[in-house]
Amino acid sequence: MLTISKVSKSFPGVKALSNVQLEVKAGEIHALVGENGAGKSTLTRIIAGVHKPDEGTIEFDGEIVHWDSPAAAKAAGIHVIYQEFVLFPNLTVAENIFLGHERRGFLNGIDHGRTRQDALDLLNRLGVSIDPDALVSELSVADQQMVEIAKALVHKVKLLILDEPTAVIAGHEVELLFGRLRALRDDGVAIIYISHRLEEIFDLCDRVTVFKDGQFVATETLAEMTNDRLVSLMVGRDMSELFPPKSSAPGPVVLTATNISVKGRVHSASLELRAGEITALSGMVGAGRTELAMAIFGGLPMIGGQVAIGGETFTRMTPSLAIEKGIGLLTEDRKGQGLAMLTDVATNISASDLGSVSHKGWLNHGREKEIAVSEIANYRIACRGPQGAVLTMSGGNQQKVLVARWARTSKKVIIMDEPTRGVDVGAKAEIYRIMRDLADRGLAVLMISSEMPEVIGLADRVYVMREGVITAELRGDEIAENRIIQAATQKRAS
Amino acid sequence: MAHTEQMAPARDILRTYGIHIVLAALIGVTAILSPAFLSGNNISNMLLQAAPLGIVVIGQVLVILVRGLDLSVASVMATAAVVATTFSGQDSDAFPVFVVAMLIGLATGLVNGLLITKRNVSPFLVTLATMTLLQGMRFAYTQGAPSGNVPPIYRVLGSQTFYGVPYNLMILVVLATVFSVLLHKTTYGRQVYLTGGNPVMARLVGIHADRITIASYVISGGLAALAGLIYSGFVGIVDNWVGRGFELDSIVAAVMGGVALSGGRGTILGGLFGAAILVVVFNAVLMLGMPIEFQIIIKGIVIIAAAAIYVRRA
């Protein structure tokens, strides 16, 4: 269906793609993997007609093609679903599906009846029950994704490209999506699936192509591939190096949360955190893990329960009180809740600890810069110095800025919510090592994670949550995939 | 590609110094066409007019930095001016007038800030409401025809000069310096920028973002009241509409000066440059003998030009 040969693309100062190849057959789901900066996005944009290749050829459906616009690629049957949906929240599902291809009727006016009926047909073909008259803003994210796929079907799609489609959905929604994608594949559609999540790739895809640093590494059949081999192709080193050794001797309890409740989300959850230990909070997305952590930190009000730290007990927490008591929290949403994106590295690092860069309310810019310089070196943050904008940095480096910020103020506990989300494999290993270092320095580390391998590979102890309740506490050899999944999906296991 | 690479520095220069270039060009062109423009008298006159707007702009910048907007400033100005003439018009009244006017300004700011942070109402609606409310109360109080005299000391502060330097300009310079220092050298200022840059993050790093936001509106209200008193001294007569249009002029000045409406970016100095452009434009129209309506037309053109320069800033 699609054959790309010897394609190169340069942007000013960067060679994004160098002599790469990719071959996707009709009726297959083809994974495209690689670390951030490997060239996946650039290749996607070339296929979608957004960029033109400097060299090389693209053969689509048996013809050499030179698209000069995204519209041309679309007309040929290529549809891309980007991470950020291109939907109009205040239009209905049916209107969104036929946007730009309105069903016309009397006097060339829009035929609402036919729009609705055709939309319903498409949604039925996908096997989803979404009301075509609903506003897109009222839909769940998973349903919005289905609307995006329905849009693709309007154009008799031959090649569908999905960029990190599961970054925004979870649990059974992922299963639903995979079911639809398999059905499309069986109808003869070629699908390119871009994801960081290797389990999904093994679950869903037929073949995989690996890119690294803008170059083609390999194309292989997934049935003959192991997880370790795929990771080593992506990073160029072994999987076993990803996780640092676990802790053998955890220290004393530094924080005890007792019967914490958060309205509608967490019901009487209790946990203990120990110095020198990495504790994971596992479970499905929506199980109340983030809310529990937020309540301990004071970011969400607790309606019941108490937090004990440093010999004091609190029934009401605020972020400023939590910071004062030595607790830090890295949110899962770096952009929305973690960073001031338009300001620089130094400002973001000092944000939670303005006291350390000021005297009696007067800022000491020199001191702030010194701290930033030393933290940049300390965590090997790739940036243009203390005055570099965080906006343009990679996910892994933004995460390291947040680690630098919170490691400075967290004297006892550091909570990290999905610390490796949207971070490439190389930076992941680095973040795992940093987390272990923090624990070795005597901090209690609480990690919330949806990724099974990192829970199993990194955590010394695991709490599992399900529907707002802690259903299991696992340690040592008990930390295994089946035990965690059992506790995360079934009624009280312990 | 090479083309855009060469363009980049030019665009950067335009973005960083655009406002200064526009101001210099305006002054240059007007000075060539009308030599009287650069006379000591005219400059002094422009500075005299610039001060009240500049004082309002300081408050407006503080509000926009925390992702807000203050439409009530002009109404606060007019109310303060009406208050100024309520007493006997003697210098002995100057202090009570000051206190009452400031209380009205600060209270308006407090109401704005509380509704915006605690009730989560949009700044546009809240300040539109307080603007209207104050206006109605002012009309009811003056019964549509305010009368009385401004205490002489306000006349001095609003319209006299000291060796050619207006007193009100000195007040502006002092205030602008104080608030610039607060913004850039203190933890308060840093909290303003962090709150505007990302309010959710600000709360999670322990900043009392609500207090910082309320403080901006209170300061804006107070500065508007002060500007109203000074402006009443400049106009000399009492008027229900003192400062009319300043709410939009101050926002335009801030935006032209590079203060991002999305919050967290911009400086007071930038806002004051924006205000200077507006004052020069208004003055140029008069000096060049154009009809007064041209002020409004040219103002529109200047806003579009500024928007075009800053549009890709964020």
TrEMBL record, chain A:
Residues 2-238, 249-492 form the ABC transporter domain. GO terms for cellular component: plasma membrane. Keywords: ATP-binding, Cell membrane, Membrane, Nucleotide-binding, Repeat, Sugar transport, Translocase, Transport. PROSITE patterns: ABC_TRANSPORTER_1 (PS00211), ABC_TRANSPORTER_2 (PS50893). It is a peripheral membrane protein. The keyword Lipid metabolism does not apply. The keyword Translocase applies. It is found in: Cell membrane. It comes from the Bacteria. Its main location: membrane. Pfam families: ABC_tran. One of its GO terms (molecular function) is ATP binding. This is ATP-binding cassette domain-containing protein.
UniProtKB/TrEMBL annotation, chain B:
This is Autoinducer 2 import system permease protein LsrD. GO terms for cellular component: plasma membrane. Part of the ABC transporter complex LsrABCD involved in autoinducer 2 (AI-2) import. Probably responsible for the translocation of the substrate across the membrane. The complex is composed of two ATP-binding proteins (LsrA), two transmembrane proteins (LsrC and LsrD) and a solute-binding protein (LsrB). It is a multi-pass membrane protein. The keyword Transmembrane applies. It comes from the Bacteria. InterPro entries: ABC_transp_permease. The chain crosses the membrane at residues 21-40, 46-66, 71-89, 95-116, 123-141, 161-183, 214-235, 241-261, 268-288, 294-311. Keywords: Cell inner membrane, Cell membrane, Membrane, Transmembrane, Transmembrane helix, Transport. GO terms for molecular function: transmembrane transporter activity. It is found in: Cell membrane. The keyword Disulfide bond does not apply. PANTHER family: ABC TRANSPORTER PERMEASE PROTEIN YPHD-RELATED-RELATED, AUTOINDUCER 2 IMPORT SYSTEM PERMEASE PROTEIN LSRD. It holds the Pfam family BPD_transp_2.
